[in-house]
Amino acid sequence: METSLEKLNKVNFKYVKEAVKEPVNFWGLAGFAVAAAYTQSVIPLAVGLVAEGAYLVSVPAMNMYKKLVDRRAKERMYKLREVQRERLINTFSQREREAVLYLQSQKNHIYDNYRKFTGASELPTNLRTLDQRWEDFVDLLDVYRRRKQHLKTINRQVIHNQLSQAYRAAESATDDRTKQIQQANVEILKRRVASYDELEKSIKLVEGRLQSIENFFGLVNDQVVAMPTPERISSLDFEQLSDSIALTKEMLEATADAMGALDTHNREMGNYELLSNNPK
Fold this sequence. Notes:
Layout: H1 4-20, H2 23-39, H3 43-58, H4 63-90, H5 94-118, H6 125-128, H7 130-152, H8 156-171, H9 176-226, H10 238-253, H11 256-269
């Protein structure tokens, strides 16, 4: 288990690495090297090493510099997430892309209307959460389409027929070994039926949540256009939508076993493109 000192050292080392890569540090070292070459003396190099040591001790410890490094890291993560989400959207069908782009344009329309009707230059924090709700819409739509594709590979009625046959075979078995084999087959088929039903419920859940996000965007736009003052927007329950989306994601994670069972089936059938972890 890490000690507090070890954790502190790790945090500090992150800022030290960033400080080393700063252009001002590079050009400062280059300047000392040029001075040493020009004067044919090691004194500029010695001074440079001392200055570098002082720089690496003082700058990474400054709160202002730490905030700068953290902000840069967040910006890089945000840009990476944007690129990844754009790639994901490009894998959608035309109809799915249209739904995503329409909701994005509606979000931007809401922002424009808010500025237009309130005269405010800055958007309130709760209204800005529509950015995250749009990202949630994209993520949930991806889950929705992949799970629908999974279920299309399985005929529930066929599984039920196989289950009935396995029950009869187990009952009519004439020896213990055959009976055990058929009973094991019954349990496997029962799990497949349960997995199918669970995934079917999760699809309906996600479909309902997608509709609620779309409806909420429409409600927000109506309120923004109709509200007499900027404070009116605070009456909308942004937190409720956020909590319900979080609950939906938790419930989807709970169906991971069902997805795994269906993945096993698709792998056995050679449907590798339908695996849930298949790269897009």
